[in-house]
């Protein structure tokens, strides 16, 4: 998934231009890109232009007038993850995309969902809900001693259980771990198992290639490392899944035609998973965000953002009373740590007071991972390519000062 770094390093001039394009960097040290990235100016402009047009000529009429640009959303997202535009369904959040995908799987009592100990909280809750309603069994593959899923053990569980679904989160919300989703995918393809990937934290941070991953379904938001607007996400649906006739449980008048009084016909493309109503301004913002990320270059981003995070981890590891929590053979741009002598909210408030944006994670976000690490909460810092080394050092110094002041 990593870029080779040979032609991709961002020059100082490009970095300055990218920061000039990002109004928010003048106000805050934004290390909460894993929550929501700072939108670049073209994303903001695309959305404001459309909202103005809606006010001037009417919402439906504005969508019709911008039909080409709306199609651009599908083209841009498809180019970003290497699929066709017909494989992309817009969704209002990653979770909405995920549960819509789950609703398409005709689970039977005793079916197995095979997942990891680091899959996202809402996905884990959804699996437990499937267990409660349908008697599905949820099996978690073990981790390696270094952290991250043990792919060989997971493959053995695939052969043992023949799961109805294999699910993996590429980068969890609660640590910088990058899971080997393509290795898992190779086993799924070999065994012809349905494979769902949550790429919420990796989209816009790493190049994503659905063919290389070998997934059938992939979900993401557009608001995090992709730097699109809130309230947006998408579901990728592979051709083989569309051809096999998977459709969401509740399919609306956009996803299906009501062809006779007692019959509906799902549409051919991933639009089958969409609703009729769209936030068009946000959709156009996403198209712009995808275009922007591709113009910066995903290899360059994948070189820079995790490198800034690594620099931060190195500095934090030197601070007495701080325990860096990220484990795994590959780590991305999410840095998590525990700090002695502080409660969660006051610590975050102290960072806020320094205009450093961060996020808290609690035990209930990651029952397995935080149980293993024996922490009840941590602070998450997530730099992006438009952040600077100076900002990293400023953030590390702020944590060191707060650690001393406890
Ligand atoms: C790994 C991961 N998956 C899914 C989600 C959920 O995204 P959304 O809030 O768009 O539903 C998040 C959000 O933090 C996440 O980190």
What does this 3D model show about the protein?
There is one protein chain. The chain has 406 residues and is α/β, with parallel strands linked by helices. The chain has two domains: 12-30 and 297-404, Aspartate Aminotransferase, domain 1, CATH 3.90.1150; 43-295, Type I PLP-dependent aspartate aminotransferase-like (Major domain) (Aspartate Aminotransferase, domain 2, 3-Layer(aba) Sandwich), CATH 3.40.640.10. It is built from 15 helices and 15 strands. It has helices spanning 12-20, 41-57, 59-65, 67-81, 94-103, 121-134, 151-161, 181-191, 210-213, 239-243, 280-296, 298-317, 344-353, 367-373, 389-404, and strands spanning 29-30, 88-91, 112-116, 137-141, 165-169, 195-198, 217-221, 233-237, 256-260, 263-266, 322-324, 335-339, 356-357, 359-362, 377-381. It has a seven-stranded mixed sheet with strand order 2-8-7-6-5-3-4, with helices on both faces. The protein is globular. Residues 93-95, 120, 122, 169, 172-173, 198, 200-201, 221, 233 line the site of pyridoxal-5'-phosphate (PLP).
Quick structural overview:
Keywords: Lyase. The chain has 406 residues and is an alpha/beta fold.
Q: What topology emerges from the helices and strands here?
A:
Layout: H1 12-20, E1 29-30, H2 41-57, H3 59-65, H4 67-81, E2 88-91, H5 94-103, E3 112-116, H6 121-134, E4 137-141, H7 151-161, E5 165-169, H8 181-191, E6 195-198, H9 210-213, E7 217-221, E8 233-237, H10 239-243, E9 256-260, E10 263-266, H11 280-296, H12 298-317, E11 322-324, E12 335-339, H13 344-353, E13 356-357, E14 359-362, H14 367-373, E15 377-381, H15 389-404
Parallel strand pairs: 1-13, 3-4, 3-5, 5-6, 6-7
Antiparallel strand pairs: 2-8, 7-8, 9-10, 11-12, 12-15, 14-15
Helix pairs in contact: 2-3, 2-11, 4-11, 7-8, 12-15
The protein binds pyridoxal-5'-phosphate.
Pyridoxal-5'-phosphate binds at residues 93-95, 120, 122, 169, 172-173, 198, 200-201, 221, 233.
């Amino acid at each position: 998934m990593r870029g080779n770094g040979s032609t991709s390093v961002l020059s100082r001039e490009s970095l300055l231009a990218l920061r000039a394009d990002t109004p928010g960097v003048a106000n805050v040290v934004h290390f909460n890109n894993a929550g929501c990235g700072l939108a670049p100016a073209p994303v903001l402009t695309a959305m404001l232009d459309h909202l103005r047009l809606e006010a001037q000529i009417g919402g439906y009429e504005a969508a019709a007038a911008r039909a080409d640009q709306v199609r651009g959303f599908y083209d841009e997202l498809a180019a970003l993850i290497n699929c066709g535009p017909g494989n992309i369904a817009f969704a209002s959040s990653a979770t909405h995309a995920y549960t819509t995908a789950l609703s398409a799987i005709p689970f039977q009592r005793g079916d197995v969902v095979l997942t990891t100990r680091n899959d996202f909280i809402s996905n884990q809750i959804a699996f437990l809900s499937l267990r409660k309603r349908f008697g599905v069994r949820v099996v978690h593959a073990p981790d390696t001693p270094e952290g991250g899923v043990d792919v060989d053990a997971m493959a053995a569980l695939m052969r043992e259980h023949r799961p109805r679904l294999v699910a993996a989160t590429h980068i969890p919300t609660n640590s910088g771990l990058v899971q080997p989703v393509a290795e898992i995918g190779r086993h799924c393809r070999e065994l012809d198992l349905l494979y769902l990937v949550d790429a919420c934290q990796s989209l816009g941070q790493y190049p994503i290639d659905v063919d290389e991953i070998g997934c059938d379904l992939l979900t993401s938001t557009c608001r995090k490392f992709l730097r699109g607007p809130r309230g947006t996400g998408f579901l990728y649906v592979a051709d083989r899944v569309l051809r096999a006739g998977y459709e969401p449980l509740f399919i609306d008048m956009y996803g299906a035609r009501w062809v006779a009084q007692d019959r509906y016909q799902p549409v051919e493309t991933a639009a089958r998973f969409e609703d009729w109503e769209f936030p068009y301004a946000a959709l156009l913002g996403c198209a712009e965000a995808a275009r922007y990320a591709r113009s910066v270059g995903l290899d360059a981003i994948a070189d820079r953002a995790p490198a800034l995070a690594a620099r931060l981890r190195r500095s934090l590891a030197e601070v007495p009373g701080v325990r860096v929590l990220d484990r795994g053979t590959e780590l991305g741009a999410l840095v998590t740590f525990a700090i002695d002598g502080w409660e969660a909210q006051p610590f975050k408030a102290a960072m806020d007071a320094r205009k450093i944006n961060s996020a808290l994670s609690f035990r209930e976000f990651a029952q397995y991972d935080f149980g293993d690490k024996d922490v009840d909460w941590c602070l998450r810092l997530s730099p992006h390519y438009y952040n600077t080394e100076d900002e990293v050092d400023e953030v590390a110094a702020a944590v060191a000062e707060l650690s001393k002041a406890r």
